[in-house]
Amino acid sequence: MAEIRFADVAHSYRANPKAPADYALKPLRFAFENGGAYALLGPSGCGKTTLLNIISGLLQPSEGRVWFDGIDVTGLPPAKRNIAQVFQFPVIYDTMTVAENLAFPLRNRGLPKADIEKRVVEVAEMLDLARMLKRRASRLTADEKQKISLGRGLVRDDVAAILFDEPLTVIDPHLKWLLRRKLKEVHARFRHTLVYVTHDQNEALTFAEKVVVMYEGEVVQLGTPQELFERPAHRFVGYFIGSPGMNFLPCRLAGDGILIDGTDVMLGDPWLARARGREGARLELGVRPEFLHVSTAPGPTTLPVAVTRVEDLGNYKLVTARLGPHEIKAKLDEDAPVPTATAHLALAPQHTLLYADGRLVG
Ligand code: ADP
Ligand code: MG
């Protein structure tokens, strides 16, 4: 188990990178703490696999250093790094049996035979593979093969970290849920440093203690699921996490208020202070649908909206409304009165955040 630290690690797949757009990873400076369970979350192409391959040593970063527990491993090949990596698609030996496949990483390290057998049985039981240990891997389904890949990632208990690169892509939804729970159990028991890559927010939020959100080659936020929900550091996090995502309303500073499409909202001094000095930037107020409610009369922080749609989604109502050119979504309690065609949506100041050029201010 190790702490994995990035000191200005950046990577470009191009020979002579110049502009930021030439980089698959822009300079990163953060750490995965020893023993933590992390999800690495971001859309396809944002650099997740590139980062994992830099950790495991399959890829040398074009800039910066990687440290494991204070030791610089940037130049070390994968075999010297003691990392288990599970890929998106099964990587197993078809000609070997399930047991031989699971034993392979241990045999490679010269473990005594009895220890290997014990550990293989343990992992097989954990992943519900025990009854097929003697079968040849070539005869298994895609699901079963991927379970073996997971087992190979979990079989060693002396690794610095285990990296999972969207490992459940080929697995059916129900089994996915079970395996995710298993991985959580394994983490609670062995406390390996776990990095689990996914582009699915639900997977990330249920699995991880901390989530690293990536966007266009950048880590835009590292935080607990609650922090990502309550204080998105970047508009991408606001929009990507939550269902539906955060509302972003373009605004500008005007006198003692903040103006959204002609409506003055009086959020108070802290917001004005944040907005001052940022006049040159693209300013937006960010508010989650959960933190908007319908007010019976206009007030200092209400927005006059035209309600375009009300959907009853069981335990809440989803309201879609327009303020000038902007669409706003609000989630109301199931027993809240249905808003009429024109309504006043109230912002709660403590849940209203200011963004300048997409980044949280203050
Ligand atoms: P993710 O895993 O988040 O989908 P990747 O790390 O695979 O993203 O890719 C990040 C960016 O780098 C993408 O724009 C991708 O096209 C590019 N890329 C990935 N691998 C290579 C490669 N071997 N050669 C050139 N470009 C690559
Ligand atoms: Mg990938």
Automatic annotation (TrEMBL):
Keyword set includes ATP-binding: yes
Superkingdom per UniProt: Bacteria
GO MF, any single term: ATP binding
Entry coiled-coil feature ranges: none
One Pfam family matching this protein: OB_MalK
Keywords: ATP-binding, Cell membrane, Membrane, Nucleotide-binding, Transport
Residue span(s) of domain ABC transporter: 4-241
Family affiliation: Belongs to the ABC transporter superfamily.
The protein, known as: ABC transporter ATP-binding protein
Organism: Benzoatithermus flavus
